[in-house]
C-alpha cells in the first residue's frame, strides 16, 4: 500500500470519529395550576416570611437559633458544600493549561548502526564541534524547566462540564437550605407537641384530683349503705386508669424533649417552654401565594432544578466527546547533555507539540456513556417534576387542614363545655340519688377524653401551620 492509501485510510477513520449520534429530545414542559384547590390567590408567599415573624414564642425562637447553630446535619451539609465547591474548582481549572515544573535526567547508549549513533559519531568529527559541545558516549540528557498540557476547548465541552459542576454546587447549597427548612419545622412541631403534652398532663392531674374526691365520696356513701362495693371498685379502677395515663404522658414528654435536644445537637436536658397550649393563640394566617412561587421558594424544587440543569449539560458534554480534541504541549527550560553546562543560557530550549485526535475504536464506550447521561437527565427531570407535584400537593393539604381544623376545634370546645356541665349535673344527681354511679363514671370519662381530644386538635392546628410554612419553602432565608 502506497503512502497515499495510508493517508486516505487515516482520513476516513478520522472522519468516522467526528460523526456524532443523535440524542432524543427531553420534554421538560411542566404546567402548574394557577391556584391551589383552596382558592388562595394571594400574591405574597409566606416563604419570604422569616420564622421570627411567624413563630413569635420567644422560647421557641431561642430553640430555633440554637438548632441553626449547633445541628449536626447542618454541619454535615456545610461540608458537602465544601466538596461541591472543590469539584467546581476542578472543573473550572480544566479550561486552563496544566503547568508542571520538574527536572529529569537520563542516559542513552546508542548502537553503532542506529541513526543517533551514526549521527553523533559523525557530528563529533566536525571541526566546528569541540570541548563541551562534543557529544559523550553514552549520552546523558538533563532537563529542568516547565512543561504544560492544554486541551483547547474547541466545542465548549469543558465549559459545559464546568457549568454542570456549578449547578451541582448550587444544588448542594439548596440541600442545606432544605435542611434548614426541615429543621425549623421539626423543632417547632416537637415544641408544640411538648406544649400539648403539658396540657394533657395538666388535664389528667386535674381529673385525678377530682376522681380521688369521687372515690372518697363513694366510700362514704358505701359506709352509709347507699352504694355497694362494686361502685367503689369502679371508681377506683377509673382512678388507676387515669394515673396510668399520667405515666404514659410523662414518658412521651421525655421522648419529645430528647428529640428536641438531638435536633439542637446536645445531650438530653430539660426543655424550657411557655404556657399551656390551651390558651396559646395560633400564629397569624399564612399567605399561600401562587403555585408558581414554589419554584423560587422551596429548596427541594430548586435543588432538583439545578440537578436537572447539570444533567442536561452532562448530555451535551457527552455528545461533544465524539468531536476531535486539540491538545497543545508546550515546554520551556534548560536542556543539555552535560550537567556542567545545564545552567548556561545557551542551554535554553523551548518547544511545542500539538495533537488533534478523534475517537475511532472507542465509540461504543462513548455511546454507552452518552446513554448513561441521557438516562440520568431523564431521571433528573422526573425527580424535578415529582418534587413540584409533591410541593403543590403538600400546600393544598395543609391549607385545607388549617381551614377545616379551625371549625373542628370550635365544635370540640363546645362539646367539652357541654360535657363538663353534664359531669357536674351527674355529680349532683348522684348525690341526691337520681343518677347511678355508672352515669357519673361515664360522664367523667367523657369529659377527660373530650379534653384530651381538644388538646390533640389544637396541637394538630399548630402542626398544620408549621407544615404549611415548611411546604411553602419558608425558613431558610437569612
TrEMBL record:
It is found in: Cell membrane. GO terms for cellular component: plasma membrane. One of its GO terms (molecular function) is efflux transmembrane transporter activity. Keywords: Lipoprotein, Membrane, Palmitate, Transmembrane, Transmembrane beta strand. It holds the Pfam family OEP. It is a lipid-anchor. NCBIfam families: outer_NodT. PANTHER family: OUTER MEMBRANE CATION EFFLUX PROTEIN (PTHR30203), OUTER MEMBRANE PROTEIN-RELATED (PTHR30203:SF30). Belongs to the outer membrane factor (OMF) (TC 1.B.17) family. This is Efflux transporter, outer membrane factor (OMF) lipoprotein, NodT family. It comes from Siphonobacter aquaeclarae.
Amino acid at each position: 500500500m502506497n503512502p497515499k492509501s495510508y493517508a486516505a485510510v487515516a482520513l476516513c477513520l478520522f472522519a468516522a470519529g467526528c460523526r456524532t449520534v443523535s440524542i432524543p429530545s427531553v420534554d421538560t414542559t411542566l404546567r402548574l395550576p394557577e391556584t391551589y384547590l383552596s382558592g388562595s390567590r394571594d400574591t405574597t408567599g409566606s416563604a419570604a416570611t422569616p420564622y421570627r415573624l411567624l413563630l413569635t414564642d420567644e422560647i421557641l425562637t431561642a430553640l430555633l437559633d440554637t438548632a441553626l447553630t449547633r445541628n449536626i446535619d447542618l454541619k454535615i451539609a456545610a461540608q458537602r458544600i465544601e466538596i461541591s465547591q472543590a469539584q467546581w474548582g476542578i472543573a473550572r481549572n480544566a479550561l486552563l493549561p496544566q503547568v508542571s515544573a520538574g527536572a529529569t535526567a537520563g542516559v542513552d547508549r546508542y548502537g553503532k548502526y542506529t541513526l543517533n549513533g551514526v549521527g553523533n559519531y559523525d557530528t563529533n568529527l566536525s571541526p566546528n564541534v569541540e570541548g563541551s559541545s562534543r557529544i559523550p558516549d553514552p549520552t546523558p540528557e538533563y532537563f529542568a524547566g516547565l512543561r504544560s498540557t492544554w486541551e483547547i476547548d474547541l466545542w465548549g465541552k469543558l465549559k459545559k462540564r464546568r457549568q454542570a459542576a456549578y449547578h451541582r454546587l448550587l444544588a448542594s447549597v439548596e440541600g442545606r437550605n432544605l435542611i434548614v427548612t426541615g429543621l425549623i419545622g421539626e423543632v417547632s412541631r416537637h415544641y408544640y407537641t411538648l406544649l400539648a403534652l403539658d396540657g394533657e398532663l395538666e388535664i389528667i392531674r386535674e381529673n385525678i384530683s377530682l376522681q380521688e374526691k369521687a372515690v372518697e365520696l363513694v366510700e362514704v356513701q358505701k359506709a352509709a349503705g347507699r352504694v355497694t362495693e362494686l361502685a367503689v371498685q369502679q371508681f377506683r379502677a377509673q382512678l388507676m386508669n387515669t394515673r396510668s395515663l399520667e405515666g404514659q404522658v410523662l414518658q412521651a414528654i421525655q421522648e419529645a424533649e430528647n428529640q428536641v435536644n438531638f435536633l439542637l445537637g446536645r445531650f438530653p436536658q430539660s426543655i424550657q417552654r411557655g404556657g399551656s397550649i390551651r390558651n396559646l393563640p395560633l400564629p397569624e394566617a399564612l399567605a399561600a401565594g401562587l403555585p408558581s412561587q414554589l419554584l423560587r421558594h422551596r429548596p427541594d424544587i430548586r435543588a432538583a432544578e439545578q440537578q436537572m440543569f447539570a444533567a442536561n449539560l452532562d448530555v451535551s458534554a457527552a455528545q461533544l466527546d465524539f468531536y476531535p480534541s486539540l491538545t497543545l504541549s508546550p515546554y520551556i527550560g534548560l536542556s543539555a547533555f552535560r550537567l556542567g553546562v545545564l545552567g548556561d543560557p545557551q542551554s535554553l530550549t523551548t518547544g511545542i507539540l500539538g495533537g488533534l485526535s478523534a475517537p475511532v475504536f472507542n465509540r461504543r464506550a462513548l455511546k454507552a456513556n452518552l446513554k448513561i447521561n441521557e438516562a440520568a437527565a431523564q431521571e433528573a427531570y422526573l425527580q424535578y417534576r415529582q418534587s413540584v407535584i409533591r410541593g403543590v400537593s403538600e400546600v393544598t393539604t395543609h391549607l385545607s387542614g388549617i381551614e377545616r381544623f379551625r371549625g373542628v376545634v370550635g365544635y370540640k370546645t363546645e362539646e367539652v363545655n357541654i360535657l363538663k356541665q353534664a359531669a357536674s349535673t351527674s355529680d349532683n344527681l348522684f348525690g341526691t340519688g337520681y343518677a347511678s354511679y355508672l352515669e357519673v363514671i361515664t360522664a367523667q370519662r367523657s369529659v377527660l377524653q373530650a379534653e384530651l381530644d381538644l388538646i390533640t386538635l389544637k396541637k394538630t392546628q399548630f402542626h398544620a401551620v408549621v407544615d404549611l410554612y415548611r411546604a411553602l419553602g419558608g425558613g431558610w432565608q437569612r
